Amino acid sequence: MRAARMTGPRELEMMEIPDPMRKDGELLVRLTRVTICGSDLHEFRGRTPRPYPWTPGKPAHECLGRIVECDRDSGFSEGEMVLVRPPEGGLREMVSVGPSNLISVEHTGFDPDLAVMAQLLGPVVHCSKRLGNLVGKSVFILGQGPAGLTLTSMVRNMGAGTIHTCDLVEGRLEESRSRGADRTFEGGPDLVERVGGEYELVIEAVGDPETILQAPGLVRLNGFIMLFGLPGEDAVLRPREFFGKQLTITTTEFPDGEDFRDAVNLMSDGLFDMNSMITHRMPFSDLQEGFELADSRADGVLRVVLDMES
Length: 310
Prior knowledge:
By secondary structure, the chain is of the alpha/beta class.
């Protein structure tokens, strides 16, 4: 089967490897779609210290597939369309995984491109459950990539009073306003000086040391900071700033099956427009180009979907 791996920073190699052997209790799944996540881009840039070449399949974890082989008592059926979170990575045509790594989306009627977007919404749903009551509160979201834009929609649906956002790409700021942002700002080193620091909640959705360090300057006394963006490298924080404002800081990661099922239900109910997040579709064979495009933020790119069947 075809697979790919990182051989160096910004370098991906296509290769042939044996089909996976299904172990007892596992399900064999043929992947049909894979999307390029922001955390994948940190790894693509070489910010994750790890010897090269990597194990075939990484980086990639937002996947969709169809079950090829399973046990009768697995709770799934052959041919069923499922979200897949493969531990060995998704840049490979087939995986063998346990049932806890799968969420059925067969009942939704979604086409594969839309179905895989529940992988983006799932972490946002998980984050929302940690934010508490947002009714009437002021919110600032750092970063309006796919995750940041989805967070903007989420906090608007949760009843936030004022939503301000920032990004370096004007097209993403336009999209942010269409998703509920009341005001948008161009990002940059002087952001805090231009915007001020009176927000009750600040969500960092970039995972960059610069924006992580800006978050405390944007939040008010006794405010709350949510670090959503998975950092590609460490940021050196300034604890005196936290003490002075008596801030609460937390993180979010590792959505579970319930979060993904909730995401699928929200999409089915029409509460989140995930189709508009898909700006580019490419065959698996063009994954190098796909990663480079997603990393460049050019051509209006938001989410790149890789078609594993072409």
